[in-house]
Amino acid sequence: MTSQVIEDEQQFYSRAQSYWKRVPPTVDGMLGGYGHISSLDLSSSRKFLQRFLREGPNKPGTSCALDCGAGIGRITKRLLLPLFEVVDMVDVTEDFLAKAKTYLGEEGKRVRNYFCCGLQDFSPEPGSYDVIWIQWVIGHLTDQHLAEFLRRCKRGLRPNGLIVIKDNMAQEGVILDDVDSSVCRDLQVVHRIVRSAGLSLLAEERQENLPDEIYHVYSLALR
């Protein structure tokens, strides 16, 4: 549990905010120096998401998606805008959202809102989103705040809407990273938080072909 590894919650959040303010607003910056894995990551994400968009009567719509921890819009640009009519982005770092407006190019006109906010304080508009995509950011929330955020996301879904978490998973327990002030949880812990938020796991997939030295990365589809 994060309560066992985070001594000061306020400091946990403020240190993360300070860390990201120092990160260059580039794809390489968003991926901690692993910019070369971006295409591989996005290609796998597209296949994972399209399984649901193509399936029968309970498939999500394609009107509106939300990109959480969006950074400069790497996922918005290459995954969400090609599949959805409009996209909203939320990120805690103002400079990233400012950069997104040029990085996204012409298609960025279909980004409806740029919300500058930490996810612990963010509430998606109820009944607004077909898909809420949450990638490489849950480690910046405490267990309690993550569960509360997921409950708010559930309320933010349109009929047949879907929440996708894609993130690093530890082999066991919860590991604190002092560099960027985040935690990495094992799958069991994430499953427990998901259940406590009143969500069901529809599918789970491990990302293949990543460098050996980084954490295992899993995608979880929730509803």
TrEMBL record:
Biological role: Distributive alpha-N-methyltransferase that methylates the N-terminus of target proteins containing the N-terminal motif [Ala/Gly/Pro/Ser]-Pro-Lys when the initiator Met is cleaved. Specifically catalyzes mono-, di- or tri-methylation of the exposed alpha-amino group of the Ala, Gly or Ser residue in the [Ala/Gly/Ser]-Pro-Lys motif and mono- or di-methylation of Pro in the Pro-Pro-Lys motif. Some of the substrates may be primed by NTMT2-mediated monomethylation. Catalyzes the trimethylation of the N-terminal Gly in CENPA (after removal of Met-1).
InterPro entries: MeTrfase_NTM1 (IPR008576), SAM-dependent_MTases_sf (IPR029063)
Lineage of the species this protein comes from: Eukaryota, Metazoa, Chordata, Craniata, Vertebrata
GO biological process: one example: chromosome segregation
Protein name: N-terminal Xaa-Pro-Lys N-methyltransferase 1
Cellular component GO terms, alphabetical: cytosol; nucleoplasm
Binding site for S-adenosyl-L-methionine: 69, 74, 91-93, 119-120, 135
Keyword field: Methyltransferase, Nucleus, S-adenosyl-L-methionine, Transferase
E.C. numbers: 2.1.1.244
Family named by the database record: Belongs to the methyltransferase superfamily. NTM1 family.
Broad class of enzyme this protein falls into: transferase
Subcellular location field: Nucleus
